Amino acid sequence: MPLEWYVAIRFLREGRMQTLLIVAGAAIGVAVMLFLSALMGGLAESLIAQTLGTQAHIVVRPVVEAARPQRTSTRDTLVMPRVERTAQRVRSIVGWQQVMRDVERAPGVVSVSPTVSGPVFAQRGDASKSVILLGIDPERFARIYPIRARLREGVYRPVGDSCVIGTELASDLGVSVGDKVRLSVVDGASDVFTVAGLFDLGNREVNRRWVLVSMRSAQTLLDLVGGVSAIDVTVDDVFAATTIAESLSARTGLVADSWMQTNAQLMVGLRSQSSSSNLIQVFVVLAVAMGIASVLIVSVVQKGKEIGILRAMGTSRRSVLVVFLLQGGIVGLLGSIVGVGLGMGLSVFFASLAVAADGSPLFPVHVSLALIARCTVVAVSTGLLSAVLPARRAARLDPAVAIRNG
Amino acid sequence: MADATAAERDAPVLVLEGVHKSYGTTVITEVLRGIDLRVIPGELTAVTGPSGSGKSTMLNLIGLLDRPTSGKVFVAGEEATALDDAGLTRLRGTKIGFVFQFHHLLPGFSALENVMMPMTIASGRPRPWMHDKALALLDKVGLADRADARPSELSGGQQQRVAIARALAMDAPLILADEPTGNLDTETAGRVFELMRELNRTTRQAFVVVTHDPRLAERCDRVVRVVDGRIVSDGPPNGAAHG
Ligand SMILES: Nc1ncnc2c1ncn2[C@@H]1O[C@H](COP(=O)(O)OP(=O)(O)OP(=O)(O)O)[C@@H](O)[C@H]1O
Ligand SMILES: [Mg+2]
Question: Which of B55, B100, B159 to mutate to test the interface with A (most CBs of A within 10 A)?
Fold first, then answer.
């Protein structure tokens, strides 16, 4: 073993209590880091998964017609400065088959699904609910939403005069599989559908509002024969959705919104959550660094004579420097080993507390290898860095003075 | 050939030439005021003098732990005063062995590990070799059976004997000791000193020993008396020890 390691390890063993304290400090720091990161990561992951369970990564829609303020021609002054949005009527994507093929070929895109959607009323007896009619291609739709896995009753077959609705809507209307529901548009057109299946996509609003029918039925009802109102897209990297959306928009000349843009609020929340967690981690690292540094500085003072003796026996300044740097590094390493264990224990314990009524975890607490590696690197470099000051002091120590001042 | 060997053998292992040492920046105290000294291999030199006369300061300069304000220091033929810090460290590690009065040993290491330390620092030798040599040295000072003891488990005299063994570990031509017996009772001091005397006779290493004890100085080859930063007498013990 090289001299520096040999002496560093002995010095650490000699100052047993001090070493235990700073290793414990580093371990707690690492545990907090690991736990916070795992928790925040798991939380973000589950929120995103929940969001994307009922949303396409990107939705391609026709451009909204611009509303213009009205002016009088004579005076050139605004008589109606208030601008109202143009009436909400369902519009189609011009040449959507071509657009869909284009989008499907775009880099990063995994699957696409055309939808015809518009507001309708769902009626059964006296009950009437405002819902969203979604005319879909069942195969393509199922590639974007986990509808098959989430089917609670009946079959997933929104074809002909069959529809598939959410469990909430079913109970609101008091219908079950096999019952009939009337769907009608505001201006009067209406049709009767048989409930083929009930889904639960894990989102109350969606379960209450979505009515899935065949594209043809929706086109007829919404007076949009041959057209679609939107194209849903999934991509391979959900966090690249915005970039891909921009390229799709440029490619098609249509509006393409990513889930990140649609859920700006969620993204702001996640971002501020992760930055506050980062801030906490920075302070934890600082506290640990100061702990290690101060203990090592005390140790340099205590070991003044020993450093002097080592120097008198031919130990170079550089070796003395390395001895103390190593002590910091070793403390960081030991701290990260203990801390990773502690942090994983904490994560498992916390995950076991945060469970839904049925015992399934509310969110995943993933301790990845990358996270462990990151914690170890941070701990070891914190140890090394906090040892720089004490190590330089030790190296500068005048051996004559150190030996004289017995 | 024979002449060269003889010359080499008698070449001084230590030379001080006009060495001055001052401390302080605003108030300057001149501790050493021109020291000239030559020590040849095998010599056992005692350095005596009143407290504060500059004995330790001189020994630190000889031991290359400090640099003179002016003058030259040669150790084993090398001009130490011309070397940089790394050079001094190397020379210290290979040509000089130290025995200190206080805190002689590294408390976290066993007696054997303490004796091995100079060799560990110099490296270049396999560990079993160092182990055997250290054990042989401990045997020489009569402590082979205490090899695994920590310094705190040894008596003062035993600690100092370990320190002497450690000073000899590198076969350095120059062994320096600053009041090596100052902390020991008279009887133990006598025995520790006798050990050094004996080792000096067998190894031909030069010893420079600072001591307050005139009876110990009496038993050396040569006594150098320092007063007020100057050598006031230098010669065999009878003429100098009480001068
Ligand atoms: N680093 C220093 N700074 C200032 N003065 C110093 C320093 N080291 C030694 N001195 C002074 O130099 C003088 C000689 O000190 P030194 O330790 O060499 O004396 P000594 O002969 O060894 O004395 P003693 O017999 O008491 O050990 C003393 O007056 C001391 O105060
Ligand atoms: Mg002294």
Answer: B100
DSSP A235-268: ES-GGGHHHHHHHHHHHHSSEEEEHHHHTHHHHH
pLDDT (tens digit per residue) in B61-113: 999 999 999 999 999 999 999 999 999 999 999 999 999 877 579 999 999 99
pLDDT band with cut points at 50, 70 and 90 for residue B203: confident
Contact A311 B65 (CB under 8 A): yes
Which pLDDT belongs to residue B84?
Answer: 94
Closest residue in B to A316 (Cα) is B89
Cα–Cα distances in Å, from A146 out to A54, A133, A214, A239? 8, 18, 18, 19
Question: Where do the structural domains in chain A lie, given as residue ranges?
Answer: 3-51+266-405, 89-253
Q: Is the pLDDT of residue A81 over 70?
A: no
Distance CA B101, CA A317 (A): 24
CA of A370 to the centre of ligand 2 (A): 58
Q: Angle at which helices A241-252 and A96-105 pack, to 10 degrees?
A: 140
| C-alpha span between A15 and A373 (Å, rounded) | 28
Instruction: Answer whether residue B128 shows pLDDT above 90.
Output: yes
Size of interface A-B (CB pairs under 8 A): 71
pLDDT at B34 over 90: yes
pLDDT for A262 equals: 86
Sorted by where each starts, the structural domains of chain B and their CATH numbers stand as 41-66+84-239 (3.40.50.300)
Burial of A50 (0-12, 13-18, 19+ CB in 10 A): middle
Token code pair at residue A255: 């509006």
Cα separations (Å) of A157 from A73, A120, A204, B37? Answer: 56, 20, 22, 109
CB atoms within 10 A of CB B62: 24
Q: Which residues line ligand 1 (CB under 6 A)?
A: B 23-24, 29, 31, 49, 51-57
